[in-house]
């Protein structure tokens, strides 16, 4: 099997630079919003000054004070990557989405459509550039690791082709840090003074297994240009999506909820007769960033009332952080409607659902908005003294 690897290093930073030209070529650090704040990604100029992903933001600022620091926009990065994957789908029906910025394409059987492997690789990087406005590198080889190593060795918007059967020779001068093995194995290789993949390939399989156990066998195979990891083709899933643009940015949660309900009403007709397992709500903010909220259901839902309730609850619990310019709603995980066999006279399930709803309301508001009647003086002649309302604490 011949495979092509597509590599987009530092995709979040590249996507930000493509969105704002002033960021191109300068040190850029993208930090997450969790505490403590850490570096999610950094550009090559920032990395040259000692910034690394996972580093604390304050450490990155001390090492690279002239860098531009931006909050992450995961929805935008994923959209950019999906555009690149869609371009790869136009070339081959078998594409693996390995991770953000890395994909593999089965190119076996495509030879009659292109002059040679180099022309095929150039078509791949050209398609990715046109679809995502980003420059990818590509590598072609007999297995995933050889193809990926060739892609890493290529400059942006370039292609490296490893001849069939030449994987071991191509890998020999490359650094061992490229090997997809555990950190413990990497550290052990450095202790043993093995700096290149060729150095490891000269060691027998038995000796490597003695040193590294079962992982030693995979290490020997990789260094000799063999990789038995199969291609995991990404599934084609049907999604239903609608988008609504506001005339002016809106901040009121009631208006946003009303917009979400309008989107849901548009999707009810194509959803008819089916259920959905996932709801994704996305907003384009006035700040130029994006906001996304994804809800995966415990069971497939087809009822419009339940979807409306989940949509409203999601927006009320975690509203967008800035005024909204546009709103989109996507339903995925579509399946046929299923029936449920209920038991006559069994109220235990309904009781559990009611108790769980009360717990969720109490966690949201800090108190229980549901009350129940408790007998206090049922013998009293005054009706108001017989019972009292108390918070229901399930």
Number of individual domains? 4
CATH topology of the largest domain: MutS, DNA mismatch repair protein, domain I
The residue ranges in which pLDDT falls below 50 over 5 or more consecutive positions are none
The fraction of residues in strands falls at: 15-25%
CATH class of the largest domain: Alpha Beta
The Rg value, from CA coordinates, equals 28 Å
**Structural class of the secondary elements?**
alpha+beta
Order of strands across the widest beta sheet?
A: 5-6-1-7-8
Distance between the terminal alpha carbons, to the nearest Å? 59 Å
> Overall pLDDT, averaged?
88
Total beta strand runs: 15
Largest sheet: 5 strands, mixed
Q: Can you write the helix and strand succession as a string? A: EHEEHHEHEEHEHEHHHHHEHEEHEEHEE
CATH architectural category of the largest domain = 3-Layer(aba) Sandwich
Helix content: 25-40%
Shape: elongated
**Can you count the helices?**
14
């Amino acid at each position: 099997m011949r495979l092509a690897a597509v590599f987009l290093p530092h995709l979040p930073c590249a996507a930000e630079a493509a969105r704002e030209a002033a960021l191109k070529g300068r040190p850029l650090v993208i930090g997450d919003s969790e505490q403590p704040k850490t570096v999610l990604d950094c550009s090559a100029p920032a990395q040259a000054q000692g910034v690394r992903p996972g580093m604390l933001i304050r450490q990155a600022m001390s090492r690279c004070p002239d860098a531009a620091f931006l909050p992450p926009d995961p929805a935008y990065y994923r959209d950019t990557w999906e555009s690149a994957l869609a371009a790869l789908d136009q070339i081959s029906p078998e594409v693996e989405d390995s991770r953000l910025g890395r994909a593999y394409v089965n190119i076996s059987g495509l030879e009659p459509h292109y002059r040679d492997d180099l022309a095929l690789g150039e078509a791949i990087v050209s398609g990715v550039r046109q679809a995502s406005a980003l420059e990818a590198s590509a590598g072609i080889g007999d297995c995933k690791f050889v193809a990926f190593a060739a892609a890493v060795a290529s400059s942006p918007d370039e292609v490296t082709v490893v001849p069939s059967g030449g994987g071991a020779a191509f890998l020999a001068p490359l650094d061992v840090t490229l090997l997809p093995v555990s950190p413990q194995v990497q550290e052990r290789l450095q202790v043993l003074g093995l700096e290149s993949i060729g150095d490891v390939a000269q060691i027998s399989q038995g000796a490597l297994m003695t040193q590294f156990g079962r992982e030693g066998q995979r290490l020997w195979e990789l260094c000799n240009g063999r990789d038995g990891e199969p291609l995991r083709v990404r599934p084609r899933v049907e999604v239903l999506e609608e988008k609504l643009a506001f005339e002016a940015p809106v901040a009121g949660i009631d208006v946003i909820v009303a917009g979400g309900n309008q989107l849901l009403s548009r999707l009810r007709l194509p959803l008819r007769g089916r259920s959905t397992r996932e709801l994704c709500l996305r907003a384009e903010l006035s700040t130029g960033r994006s906001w996304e909220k994804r809800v995966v259901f415990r069971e497939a839902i087809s009822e419009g009332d339940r979807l409306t309730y989940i949509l409203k609850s999601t927006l009320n619990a975690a509203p967008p952080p800035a005024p909204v310019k546009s709103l989109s709603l996507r339903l995925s995980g579509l399946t046929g409607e299923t029936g449920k066999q209920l038991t006559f006279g069994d109220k235990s399930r309904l009781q559990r659902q009611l108790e769980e709803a009360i717990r969720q309301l109490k966690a949201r508001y800090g108190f229980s908005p549901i009350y129940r009647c408790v007998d206090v003086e049922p013998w009293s002649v005054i009706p108001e003294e017989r019972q009292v309302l108390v918070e229901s604490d399930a």
